[in-house]
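User: Second chain of the day. Same drill as before.
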Amino acid sequence: MLRVVSTHLFLNQRLHPGLLELVSRSGAEAVEIFAARQHFDYTSREHVAELAAWFSSNSLAPFSMHAPLFPDREMGRAGAPAVNILHPEKSRRIDAMDEIKRALEAAEHIPFKNIVIHMGEKEDGWSLRTIEYAQTALEHLCAFAHPLGVRVLVENLTGEPTTPSHLMTILDLGHMDTVDVCLDLGHAHLTVGVADAIATLGNRIRTVHVHDNHGLKDEHLWPGDGTIDWKAAVAALKALASPPAAVLEINYTLGDTPADIPGKIQQAFERLS
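Assistant: Same format as last time:
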């Protein structure tokens, strides 16, 4: 599996070349850039150019981008609405798609190949309207992403619209062969279980968000620090026709020091080997 590190690990810091070099020293082959404006300001030409210049002269690849969850620099804490392409209000859905497109435009300079999208919030329910909203948004975003060379991936969350079976319903009914799945192992552990999620999503799984928890809340711990059965999870992933990329998505609040991070990343990837 391709070894990828999400910059979610540094979400409380501005993303700069020094952090990318730290990841590179860990043995990672690529990164997933988390599009949060206080971390990576995808609306800033200067910030985009700074990272593009670094990637152009280094071996660490920009594999994917995580689409923005909020349009502000406070992750919604100041009252900004979430980026929600399933919101009941059409204007909110349009605003959400526009924000994701702003992030996608960075692919003109930073050649990431995938974008991971959240659909809905915890309180959103499952209905025929949900399917309609999801398919409309994904068709729109795919049309925007395709000329940029970016593939759209949808992520399983903990709400009803994004259970593994509901994701497959959305994709199958919409004949969305160009959309794949980012399987979040932590979210699966909190809901249907990792084994069930892998069995349901099967070969639609293109990437895997790797982190751990104790089955009660979304902690984003290092693999092995929670209760996921990693031996069974790795065996199931390796049994897929095309092993997905493994994207470490670790919480930035765990207190890891810069000196400790490369070793912890290496240990995490060894657990997946």
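The chain has one domain: 3-271.

User: Great, on to the next one.
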